[in-house]
Design a protein that fits this description.
The complex is a heterodimer of chains A (143) and B (433). Chain A is α+β, with helices and mostly antiparallel strands. Chain A folds into two domains: 67 residues, VC0802-like (2-Layer Sandwich), CATH 3.30.2130; 73 residues, VC0802-like (2-Layer Sandwich), CATH 3.30.2130.10. The longest helix of chain A has 11 residues. The radius of gyration of chain A is 16 Å and the shape is globular. Chain B has 433 residues and is an alpha/beta fold. Chain B folds into two domains: 322 residues, Rossmann fold (3-Layer(aba) Sandwich), CATH 3.40.50.12780; 98 residues, GMP Synthetase, Chain A, domain 3 (2-Layer Sandwich). Chain B has a nine-stranded mixed β-sheet. The radius of gyration of chain B is 23 Å and the shape is globular. The chains are: A alpha+beta (143), B alpha/beta (433). The interface between A and B is medium-sized, with 21 and 17 residues.
Chain lengths: 143, 433
């Protein structure tokens, strides 16, 4: 069920993002989704990739700090109120979202939302109870 | 004005004769009264009777900062407790503090030395001295205070801080001489401009600045902004405090009060005494101190001695402004900092390695310190706020170790430069030459 996101520490320096992306590309890893959080000093590159193990190995070889984090991936209706209805489920249970990002795929009608919740288990339970469409690693591979 | 013409303008022969006599008396006294020195001299095979000429001084073993720390608090006092009337101490932020004890005579001598300094800055008994060095265990405030009183000048005991009040008093009282650290002087000068004070409305004519390294550029800038002559003063808690040496109006180096301090320059590697004019580590001896005489103290400060004539008429030997340290100590915002303290603080935090780098800069007038720390998967988070929180945690840890605030930045692993496998720990971008 669980999906592990990769987080990569990036200094705010020219060419750092390219270097990280290049390392994965050389290793034949496909990036399914990504987002970047940044401050004035550095950025955090968050990725959903086709093969975590290979990606981590490739990034570590290039001296990047990489971390795996449990995230929840949810399919929501690609229409107005789609994301909102999912957030409502979490809000009702007073579950805080740390961050989220979304992407669409041509192979599904739904928009795919990656959510980080402080307490992973609580989030999964709340969404499951509300019959949300939780996607697994395998589901993602199909997209 | 020369405060003590007899002492400050003595001819060389007479002076050296006096120094030898004082030195002989001093080593005899410490040998008899301070077990630390008896042990040290005996181990080095030196006996007070071996000191027959000033050339024999090099046979006396050095005293180091570590020795003084070991003697904490009162181990080096050479008189009964009831004769000690004042105590000062280093901050102790770099480990065990060093305590300094003074008898009445020591305080009088201190006052004499700082009175000479104030006179070098053009002060006399009519001067109002705004003393903005900190009053307390730190020697700055009291050192100047003793001198101002010895001179009969008016001391305004401001201590440091409360800038608005400093400026108001400076204007209202018409202070003549400002005494503080050069960086604080700069801060005051800039605040004057910012607060819209009219340069005409203050009547400062001189500043006596010390307790940290500073540059000629900073001097020119201070002189221009405040309309003063800026005099460099040197001293250290271990030997006394400020007043060991000070610049006269010709600014040709700092006149050392040789009737109370015996200066030498050594090669800090070999310990050998160097000729006049050669750069090396300053070694100082208290010739007249009673409470806690310190013999051949290795200051770690790098300078050179000059004996050519100074137009002011004083014959005392002069030292160049301090341009560096022979150890890895940094003086940041007037506080002594050793990289090892920062390292110890970093290593207390789980997940951090000793891969760090200290950047010291002085973007304007105040020192800033940034510590770069390499990340590891254990300390890295996918959430920005957690990383920032972590940085603040490291900063707090370091601050509690060194006593000054730092900015912490996480950097990528193995991104900090290393030379021959050993990381370059300190990048000091301040320029003191």
């Amino acid at each position: 069920m669980s999906v592990k996101q990769l987080s990569v520490f990036l200094e705010n320096k020219e060419g750092k993002l390219k270097k990280a992306v290049n390392a994965m590309s050389q290793a034949g890893v496909n990036i399914r989704a990504l987002s970047i959080a940044d401050s004035s000093k550095y950025g955090i590159l968050r990725l959903i990739v086709s093969d975590n193990e290979t990606a981590i190995k490739a990034l570590k070889e290039e001296k990047f700090t990489v971390k795996e984090t449990d995230v929840i991936v949810v399919g929501v209706k690609d229409e107005p109120n789609g994301l909102n209805s999912m957030l409502e489920i979490l809000e009702k249970k007073s579950i805080n979202v740390e961050y989220l990002y979304a992407f669409v795929s041509s192979k599904t009608e739904e928009a795919i939302v990656v959510v980080k919740i402080e307490n992973y288990e609580d989030g999964v339970k709340a969404l499951k109870d509300a019959d949300a469409n939780l996607l697994s690693k395998e589901d993602l591979a199909e997209l | 004005m020369i405060w003590n013409e007899k002492a400050e303008c003595m001819d060389r022969e007479e002076k050296e004769e006096m120094q030898l006599a004082l030195f002989q008396q001093q080593v005899k006294r410490v040998y008899e009264n301070v077990p630390f020195y008896k042990k040290k001299f005996d181990e080095a095979g030196f006996h007070p009777d071996d000191l027959k000429t000033l050339d024999d001084v090099s046979k006396i073993p050095f005293t180091t900062k570590a020795d003084l720390r070991e003697a904490y608090p009162f181990g080096l006092f050479a008189v009964p407790d009831d004769e000690i009337i004042e105590i000062h101490s280093t901050s102790g932020t770099t480990g065990t503090p060093v305590v300094s004890g003074y008898t009445q005579k020591d305080i009088d001598i201190w006052g004499e030395c700082t009175a000479r300094a104030i006179a070098m800055a053009g002060g006399d008994k009519n001067s109002k001295i705004q003393n903005s060095y900190g009053y307390g265990l730190f020697t700055g405030g009291f050192g100047i205070d003793h001198g101002a009183k010895a001179m009969g000048a008016t001391v305004i005991p401001m201590s440091s801080g409360n800038t608005a009040r400093q400026l108001k008093i400076m204007e209202d009282f018409q202070s003549d001489i400002l005494t503080c650290t050069p960086s604080y002087a700069m801060y005051l000068a800039e605040s004057l401009e910012k607060e819209g004070f009219d340069a005409e409305s203050i009547s400062l004519h001189a500043g006596i600045f010390g307790a940290e390294m500073w540059t000629e550029e900073m001097r020119h800038s201070l002189e221009e902004k405040l309309g003063i002559t800026a005099h460099n003063i040197y001293g250290l808690t271990e030997l006394m405090g400020p007043g060991v040496s000070t610049e006269c109006e010709y600014q040709t180096g700092l006149h050392i009060q040789e009737d109370h301090f015996y200066p030498e320059i050594i090669d800090s590697e070999t310990g050998e005494t160097l000729e006049d004019g050669q750069k090396g580590e300053l070694v100082l001896t208290n010739l007249t101190r009673e409470g806690m005489p310190v013999i051949r103290f290795r200051t770690k400060d790098i300078t050179a001695l000059r004996r050519d004539e100074c137009p002011c008429g004083r014959t005392t030997v002069r030292m160049d402004r301090i341009t560096g340290r022979s150890d890895d100590m940094l003086k940041i915002k007037g506080v002594m900092v050793y990289p090892s303290q920062i390292e110890a603080a970093i290593l207390q935090i789980e997940g951090l390695t000793a891969n760090y780098q200290i950047h010291v800069s002085r973007p304007k007038t105040l020192d800033e310190i940034e510590v770069k720390v390499e990340t590891s998967p254990e300390v890295f988070s996918d959430e920005m706020k957690k990383i920032e929180e972590f940085e603040r945690r490291i900063a707090r840890k370091i601050q509690s170790a060194i006593g000054i605030s730092v900015d912490v930045t996480l950097v990528e692993p193995e991104s900090l430069p290393r030379s021959e496998g050993k990381a370059i720990r300190v990048i000091d971008e301040r320029n003191f030459d």
